[in-house]
Specification:
Blueprint (H helix, E strand, L loop, with lengths): L2 E7 L4 E7 L4 E5 L6 H9 L6 E6 L2 E4 L12 E4 L11 H11 L5 H14 L15 H14 L4 E5 L10 H12 L4 E4 L3 H7 L2 E4 L8
Bound molecules: adenosine-5'-triphosphate.
Length: 211
């Protein structure tokens, strides 16, 4: 689905517009503080901008009149520090969003969650709670959670930044596979991520220095 958005958050100095073509992975680049994370959280529905709009395919996620809450956007958002529910197992964390995505049967939710954990290479850890996972394993679980519900749009904020040099290339390769054909907006300072994952790059310019 095509994403067309304009996010205006004056108190953060953010006024950013861009479009992502259907199925494309668009990398948002720009210096620290220009508003990349702010844009993702607005499109995800975590932060309400003062003005602007976001349209995903035929749907309006927000504009000057409308505000669809995050849980009804069908947008998968991996925040910069994704939080897994500490009291739930990896499998239950991934299954959690599936009920809202309309998967009624509990058995089916478990199966889908297990399948995504397998795809991300952590199926054998499905019964562990987050504190029993390494950083890389938790990140794979968080990625599985984002993708399992079949989002119309995927938003990834520095998905590999917390991973060590040995783990990051593996997960980067996995992401390249699972993101193929899904409309995605990626924020990453890593050139390797952008080169491996992005079809296009939009650079957010730094705001002019204030007087
Ligand atoms: N929770 C917040 N409350 C108020 N201002 C914030 C908040 N988060 C970020 N900002 C400010 O909003 C502006 C945009 O920040 P944002 O995190 O979106 O930038 P970014 O491009 O993602 O930066 P980075 O590359 O460092 O992650 C910055 O000036 C920042 O200081």
């Amino acid at each position: 689905m095509r994403l067309d958005c304009h996010v205006v958050v004056p108190e953060r100095g953010v006024d950013v517009a861009f479009t992502a073509a259907p199925g494309e992975t668009l990398a948002l680049s720009g210096a620290n503080g220009v508003g990349k994370s702010t844009v993702l959280s607005a499109v995800a529905g975590w932060l309400r901008p003062e003005a602007g709009h976001a349209r995903l395919g035929e749907r309006t996620l927000f504009d000057e009149h409308a505000w669809i809450p995050a849980r009804r956007r069908n947008v998968g958002y991996l925040a910069q520090d994704p939080l897994l529910f500490p009291h739930l197992t990896a499998e239950a964390n991934v299954a959690f969003g599936l009920r809202r995505a309309g998967v009624v049967s509990r058995a089916e939710r478990r199966e889908v969650a297990r399948d995504w954990l397998d795809r991300l290479g952590v199926g054998h850890l499905a019964g562990r709670r987050p504190h029993q996972l390494s950083g890389g394993q938790a990140q794979r679980t968080a990625i599985a959670r984002v993708l399992a519900s079949g989002p119309d749009l995927v938003l990834l904020d520095e998905p590999l930044a917390a991973l060590d040099a040995g783990t990051a290339p593996q997960i980067r390769e996995l992401l390249a596979q699972v993101l193929a054909g899904r409309t995605t907006v990626l924020v990453s300072h890593q050139v390797a991520d952008v080169e491996a994952l992005a079809d296009a790059v939009t650079t957010i310019p730094a705001p002019p220095p204030s007087a």
